[in-house]
Amino acid sequence: MQKNSKSILVTGCAGFIGFHLTKRLLDEGFYVIGIDNMNDYYDTTLKYDRLKMVMNHPRFQFVKGSIENMELLENLFCWYDFDTVVNLAAQPGVRYSLENPHKYIQSNIVGFANILECCKKHKIPHLIYASSSSVYGNNKKIPFSVTDRVDNPISLYAATKKANELMAYTYSHLYHLPTTGLRFFTVYGPWGRPDMALFKFANAIVKQQPIEIYNYGNMKRDFTYIDDITESILRLINKEPSPESPYKIYNIGNNQPVQLNDFIQVLEKHLGKKAIKKLLPIQPGDVPETFADIDELVKDIDYKPQVSIEEGIEKFVEWFKDYYKISE
């Protein structure tokens, strides 16, 4: 493989998307400096096991710390000459934001402001950062387009992600810092987050425990497989940002919403077990449907997410059974 001399900073490198991106970048020949605070929002064993997969790679350097620590970030930006910064560090989760709002302000607002300041000061050629499909709130227009107004977030998590986009716009406008925001749509796959529906459902079905299905199963989600996410980010890293348009936002979704009940049916098939269903009303902060318009993404990077639910869930179940030593 041809060596790539580019250095990439990946924040949240032990997280679900951060780990997969780090691994892919290393496979592609990049140098990767990863930072993660290894917080206990979910089982840290999973985070450390992800890290083990890349820790000994000769082109990977890990830093344990938080993007809220400006002194640490300043040192990192002085030590390394980053070609691209990919900010995936954030406090995720819609429901958790109802219980712990300050965690979201610290990580998603203060931390992101630190990233922006460091990128500005050190003249980073490109900042790519995670936004979320949550910014669309109760958007009535389907599919969700990046040109839609997103002024009505219905969770604090969504509000912090919208704030990130506004902050990035300001830095692009004032300092000509090229920024690209990615509105991810329900990412799933091997090494996924235990607080996400697929992981929780699989765990409960295997243990023959009830699964909680909100909105009585009448939810639709634009489930997006992790490899489609990393391929899209890789192409954006390799694409020179336009000096005329330094601020960009993209949806990254599968462009094919799936009914939650159908999603569970595919999971049952691959696990070989039936779910015990507990039907519940919609939760505060949840939206009934997500559906990504990805025309802009396809036009700019010539790639359309393509992994089907059938294929994606099968790969997740293979990993899940292997990781947790689950026999038939």
Structure description:
It is a single chain. With 328 residues, this protein is an alpha/beta fold. The chain has a domain at 7-188 and 224-255 and 291-305: Rossmann fold (3-Layer(aba) Sandwich). Helix content is 41%, strand content 17%. The chain contains eleven helices and 13 strands. The protein has a seven-stranded parallel β-sheet with strand order 3-2-1-4-5-6-11, with helices on both faces. It starts with 6 loop residues before the first strand and ends in a 5-residue tail after the last helix. This is NAD-dependent epimerase/dehydratase domain-containing protein. Residues 8-253 form the NAD-dependent epimerase/dehydratase domain. Keywords: NAD.
The third-level CATH topology of the domain at 7-188 and 224-255 and 291-305 is Rossmann fold
Q: How are the strands of the largest sheet arranged?
A: 3-2-1-4-5-6-11
Q: What do the pLDDT scores average to?
A: 94
CATH superfamily assignment of the domain at 7-188 and 224-255 and 291-305?
NAD(P)-binding Rossmann-like Domain
Class of secondary structure makeup: alpha/beta
Give the tally of β-strands.
13
Major β-sheet, in short?
7 strands, parallel
Cα(first) to Cα(last) distance is: 39 Å
Estimated radius of gyration: 19 Å
The 3D shape can be described as globular
Helix content: 40-55%
CATH class of the domain at 7-188 and 224-255 and 291-305: Alpha Beta
Low confidence ranges: none
Number of helices: 11
Sketch the topology as an H/E string, one letter per element.
EHEHEHEHHEHEEHEEEHEEHEHH
Strand content: 15-25%
CATH architecture designation of the domain at 7-188 and 224-255 and 291-305: 3-Layer(aba) Sandwich
Protein name: NAD-dependent epimerase/dehydratase domain-containing protein
InterPro entries: Epimerase_deHydtase (IPR001509), NAD(P)-bd_dom_sf (IPR036291)
Pfam family, one: Epimerase
Domain NAD-dependent epimerase/dehydratase: 8-253
